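Input/output pair, single chain:
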Amino acid sequence: MVELEHLRVYMRKQAEGDRKRRSVQVTGPTLEEALLQASIELNIPLKQIEYEVLDKGSRGTFGVGKKDCILIAYEVKKEEEKILAPEDFEFSFGAEGAGMSKPADADGEAIIRLYADGAWLKVTPPIGKGRKINDKIVIENLHNRTVRQYDHALISRVVKRAEATFVKVGEFLYNPANDSILTVDITDFEMKAYVIVSPPGPGGADLGKEQILGFMKNNSIVHGVKEEAIDEFLDHPEHGKPILVAEGTKPENGKDAKIIYNFEIDRSKIKLKEKNGRVDFKEMNLVQNVVEGQALAKKVPYEEGTTGRTVTGKLLPAKSGKDVKLNVGKNCRLSEDGMTVIAGINGQVILAAEKINVEPIYVVEGDVDLHSGGNVVFLGTVLVKGSVDDGFKVKAAGNIEVMGNVGKCELDAEGDIIVHQGITGKGGGDVHSGRSVWAKFIENARIEASEYVVASEGIINSQVNANKMIICQGKRATIVGGKLRAVEHIHAKTLGSVAGSETILEVGYDPASKSRLAEMEETTDVIDKEIEEIILNIRTLQNIQREKKKLPEDKAAYLVALTEKHSELSVRKEELLEEIEKLQQYLSSLRTIGKISASGKVFPGVKISIKEAALEVRNEFKAVTFINELSMVKMTKFEELEGDFTPKQ
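Output:
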């Protein structure tokens, strides 16, 4: 019993044997002389030759009509090279035939081609339970192709062997005027090529593979040629239908370089952990500590683009990926290969202005006041274990964390500002954060944050701007008085008060992005005018070149410079348009994400603006969310904040 591996060995040996087996086609006045010629050409004795007679020949009458004998001679395989036939094996593939998938059944085929030198036949063997081809089918097919002169004995041998190779089996009355005609059609910006073959007329010949390939080459089709499609057509012709015979290769742009950070840079997931209705800021862990030698970020380099090619051989350039700079800030260093950022000291890792920094922490043991040395300006994180008194300033390149209160003072941090008690600005306090502001309460203060403003007990009579959300959560999470603006969402338990205090709430508006969009659109208009002027100059020089055949040296150099400038401006315009599209999509998205929510009550006196729509609340509402729908403020059922808003541990 033979397993699948034995079959592989057999097939390998069979292929090797076929390669070693030599054959020649020879002619001679007699069979004996033809065999002698084969012995000479193969350089082997006559006893090692087996042969097939293609044409027995004829002696003629008195030499008239004499035809030579034509045969194909093979070298007999040596005994030691004998290869087992498949029927010598008894295959075993397991109970369910897992060793090899059973081929689909298919009938054998008789394929006839008519060429100028005669009729050629190829017979393929059946597969599985398919039916074999017989002589009758072949002869019927030959008659259908108007072939009347053929060698019946040779046909029988070809049918019996079914070797799937073409053998000349007959003659026909050849009429070159009725040969198949070939046309070609190149489409899809030269990315596809089709040929259409007309059927041959009476006495006309089929097209051969080399003829089709030569015709394609003469029509500049040199790339992506599908020879298997040509072979399939030749065996199963569909005349008059377009056949895809070549397909170009599309260019593939390279991937952009990217930076993989080993620390959290996404601050969108704010987490507030409540205990008995109160937020415990002691449980917050917003500082990401690193140790000296720790890998902070790794750069993945950009990839080169893969050039494409049309069927006519034209190169289609591909863009390489865009590079990105691995910006190293304070207390960091690059690895030897320049692809990894490594911490230089122990401290807090911060991504500020796209630079990776490791900041040490500056600790103020008590209050920020005259006793502590006055104002604090530090290129790192500042931890104040007391409070910040009125009139003082604390500025930090990292975070600012205050364990006590913040009075009428100025806090400015590139990172987060965390106040464990409250901010009491007394109408003059300024707090500015490059990320988020966290506090128990905010009263009579001015707050600006690039991301979030979070207060657990409320915001009273304050001016608050946040580029993402303003969130009040807790038992007394109330927004009363003042003006609050957020791009995405304002969320609180209560909005306004029974006294009807004017409370202005605005969402869905980002003036910085809108200004940037206007600036880019203006730049694009300037580039368009420059390109238009350059094109006019280029056309003028090209007209001069056509008239005079050759431009003066200075004008030729100017033409080259104009062409290069045109290319540079076109690239710059494309980059601007991509950025404009992204910004427009962002500004458009603000219309859908802008919302104002109250889990408790909304009192009269609250003024709501969502994008361009406005509403002044005149009645009391409970548990509602305001959205913009068709440029009008609409009330819907209260929507909870999505995600987990408890602090990271």
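Residues 176-247 form one domain. Residues 79-101, 280-285, 645-649 have pLDDT under 50 and may be disordered.
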